[in-house]
Design brief:
2 domains, 6-stranded mixed β-sheet, alpha+beta, single chain, binds calcium ion, globular, 251 residues, 20% helix, Immunoglobulin-like, 7-stranded mixed β-sheet, 5 helices
């Protein structure tokens, strides 16, 4: 078992420590966007539950070409802990390597379909809203491609509000999350942040009016109203209206 683990740790160390694979430049980033590179994407969750309830948020790796393959990932996640906290002590909770209470972080099926994995919650700080996580395939002859969920997180809502779920670099050597390809190099990819918006249950007609009045606006427009941008994508459009419709309750 130890012998099988060693190459994986070596790969992880190379990924984390090799400054040659330094961060993507801006130009690189734009190129990445235009060429539809793989994305590491966090769910955008809009909820109307009460404080104390929990929501599941997935992190999905999309569009990894089979010619490239994925053997591991390493990311830092940050969020506003006044709105949501990672649920503690659930049935699938993991103990952070840094110590502290176990939290509900579940490895997704993406890498596990290819073989046994090592999934580590390196550190979790529920007060700061920060977690560093890593996962590697133990058998380096295998790799995963296509699209799949790499991580499932369970958050407990603290109060109504919105928190971004930001993806970041797990180390000073990168400026985004790290995805390792089958050649043990850093895979070009695009991080896509998510969010949780937790709203108090209110009259849907209020939302409908607010969205209608601000429809079509973006920040700096005269009719812009951030309250109408229910999915927080900086435009009030049909997708905000769909949220209103979804939350409409027949009196
Ligand atoms: Ca919007």
């Amino acid at each position: 078992m130890i012998n099988r683990l060693l190459p994986s740790f070596a790969v992880l160390l190379i990924i984390l420590l090799c400054p040659v694979n330094l961060s993507l430049t801006c130009a690189h980033f734009e190129k990445a966007l235009s060429q539809a590179l793989p994305t590491l994407e966090i769910d955008r969750v809009y909820n109307m539950t009460e404080a104390g309830q929990t929501v599941i948020v997935n992190v999905t790796l999309r569009n990894v070409p089979s010619t490239i393959g994925c053997v591991g990932w390493n990311l830092k996640l940050t969020w506003d802990s006044s709105v949501a906290r990672l649920t503690t002590d659930g049935p699938d909770s993991v103990a952070p390597a840094s110590g502290g209470p176990s939290v509900v972080l579940i490895e997704g099926p993406f890498l596990r379909y290819a073989g046994a994995t090592l999934f580590v919650a390196t550190s979790v700080d529920n007060d700061q809203g920060e977690a560093v996580l890593a996962c590697v395939l133990l058998d380096q002859r295998m790799n995963a491609s296509g699209t799949g969920v790499v991580l499932m997180m369970n958050f407990t809502i603290v109060k109504p509000g919105t928190t971004a779920l930001e993806l970041g670099s797990p180390s000073p050597y990168f400026n985004q999350s790290v995805v390792a390809d089958a050649s043990n190099r850093v895979m070009d990819h695009v991080d896509i942040e998510g969010w949780i918006t937790e709203r108090e249950e209110g009259p849907a007609t209020y939302d409908a009016v607010v969205v209608m009045l601000a429809f079509g606006s973006i920040p700096d427009n005269l009719k812009w109203n951030p309250e109408a941008d229910l999915n927080n994508d900086s435009i009030v459009d049909i997708f905000d209206a769909i949220i209103v419709a979804g939350n409409y309750r027949v009196p």
